[in-house]
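Field log, afternoon session.

UNIT: design team B
ACTIVITY: writing a sequence onto a fixed backbone
BACKBONE:
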């Protein structure tokens, strides 16, 4: 599939934002996080800013942006519509959560937990947009949803650790960052292992219904020039480039952030703040590369009619 920059920015930024919002909504009401108003302002501004920036960037992928509102009406059947509804609905409890924390000095438990629930639901809906697409085997599998949720949690945790280092370190939470990194890395590696080893679900023979007659091969291209389907769904990345990008995504997204997340165990003050900032920045960059690969490595079954032998 053709990697769209707007969608990659959306899933990367909003994933981190929703991950951070979910952590704030669960941890703050129970006193695990500082009740300081400035801490709440910075943390919630970072979460909601990333969410809003991601949602705005996603609009650039729409062909007719003025009709975007119509997507909300299809929530009964469309995961894309459910994602939009969940994203908008989450702003209400998140807004109440922020007003209570920042302006009233009260961390409202119900608003926080509803914000966390909305954040998780939105990321789940985003993952299901791809998980539900049967014509794309590399998306239609059990690893996609856990990966989206784990990467959002990891990204949100890394940014939470940075804010905590600035406003008030909580040593009891130091283990959270390396733990979420390990979880996300395990799921990502498992996903890559799965798509590399999974047998083809469709062939040119099964797609045309002629497989019983023998091997089906393309005799002549259906188009003399590239069309929309080939541009959007026929994108291919060389295996050697994919392998290199996987190593980059692993190093940036998991390896280096894991090492840096251990810094608070041995240093404090500004060195710990610097390590947390670099870990969050590298982790986000690694997720960006991973998300580009998620699209670039996907193969749509429609390409079987354009010469690809199997998907």
């Amino acid at each position: 599939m053709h990697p769209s920059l707007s969608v990659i920015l959306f899933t990367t930024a909003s994933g981190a934002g929703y991950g951070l919002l979910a952590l704030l909504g669960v941890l703050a009401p129970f006193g695990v996080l500082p009740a300081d108003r400035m801490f709440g302002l910075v943390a919630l501004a970072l979460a909601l800013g990333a969410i809003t920036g991601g949602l705005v960037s996603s609009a650039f992928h729409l062909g007719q942006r003025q009709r975007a509102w119509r997507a909300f009406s299809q929530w009964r059947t469309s995961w894309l519509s459910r994602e939009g509804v969940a994203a908008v609905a989450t702003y209400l409890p998140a807004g109440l959560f922020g007003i209570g924390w920042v302006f009233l000095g009260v961390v409202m438990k119900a608003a926080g937990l509803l914000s966390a629930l909305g954040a998780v639901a939105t990321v789940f809906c985003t993952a299901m947009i791809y998980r539900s697409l049967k014509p794309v085997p590399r998306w239609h599998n059990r690893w996609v949803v856990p990966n989206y949720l784990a990467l959002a949690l990891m990204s949100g945790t890394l940014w939470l650790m940075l804010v905590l280092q600035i406003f008030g370190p909580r040593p009891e939470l130091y283990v959270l960052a390396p733990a979420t990194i390990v979880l996300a890395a395990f799921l990502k590696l498992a996903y890559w292992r799965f798509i590399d080893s999974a047998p083809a679900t469709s062939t040119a023979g099964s797609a045309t219904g002629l497989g019983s007659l023998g091997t089906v091969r393309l005799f002549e291209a259906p188009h003399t020039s590239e069309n929309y389907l080939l541009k959007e769904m026929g994108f291919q990345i060389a295996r050697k480039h994919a392998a290199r990008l996987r190593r980059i995504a692993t190093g940036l997204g998991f390896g280096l952030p894991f090492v840096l997340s251990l810094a608070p165990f041995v240093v404090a003050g500004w060195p710990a703040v610097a390590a947390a900032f670099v870990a969050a920045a590298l982790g986000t960059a690694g997720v960006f590369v991973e998300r580009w690969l998620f699209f670039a490595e996907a193969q749509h079954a429609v390409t079987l009619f354009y010469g690809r032998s199997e998907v």
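LOG NOTE: The two ends are 12 Å apart (CA to CA).
NEXT ACTIVITY: expression trials, pending approval
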